[in-house]
Amino acid sequence: MSNFTTFSTQIKTVLQAVQQSGSAAFVDVLEYPSNKFTGFPSATVVPSDVQSDYATVKQNRRRYVFNVYLYYSLENSNQATAYTNMRILIDTVLDALDKSNDLSGNADFVTPVPMQWGVQETESGVCLVAPVNVICEKDIALY
Fold first, then answer.
1. From first to last of its 143 residues, what are the pLDDT tens digits of the chain?
2. Spatial separation of the C-alpha atoms in residues 135 and 143, rounded to whole Å
């Protein structure tokens, strides 16, 4: 299995395990870009790019980058509530990724970096969207 596939699956698994108020934090966790969800909060895990550092002729360090988008509906709640809940959700997601800092032994190191929030129109209504850049580092033996 490719590193991109393994890391994407593991990030999805971490997100599906996130709990808030005793139940799953996300209704949908998708591994592709989407703006249609069955409920909220929802998340998407989208591969972004790969960066390499050439350590030696026998080993490289690769950084697999994913954009994880967290969606919270503004349709049925006021903005103050939505922003409060999104702040809590982001902290919970960052904590979960920090605790799984090697994605069950598949990565050498994982760094979640929150990015700029925004409001987006989706097929499911207007949402607060918070991207989290997740960088998965892996030493690759060339031979």
1. 688 899 999 999 999 999 998 999 999 999 999 999 999 999 999 999 888 776 666 678 889 999 999 999 998 878 899 999 999 999 999 999 999 989 999 999 999 998 899 999 989 889 999 999 999 999 887 76
2. 24
The torsion angles phi and psi of 77, rounded to 5 degrees, stand at -145, 155
Structural domains present in the chain: 3-141 (3.30.70.1700)
- Whether 19 and 89 have beta carbons less than 8 Å apart is answered as no
Residue identified by tokens 């033996």 is: 141
**E strand intervals along the chain:** 19-20, 23-24, 28-30, 42-54, 59-73, 109-114, 118-122, 125-141
d(CA 100, CA 65): 16
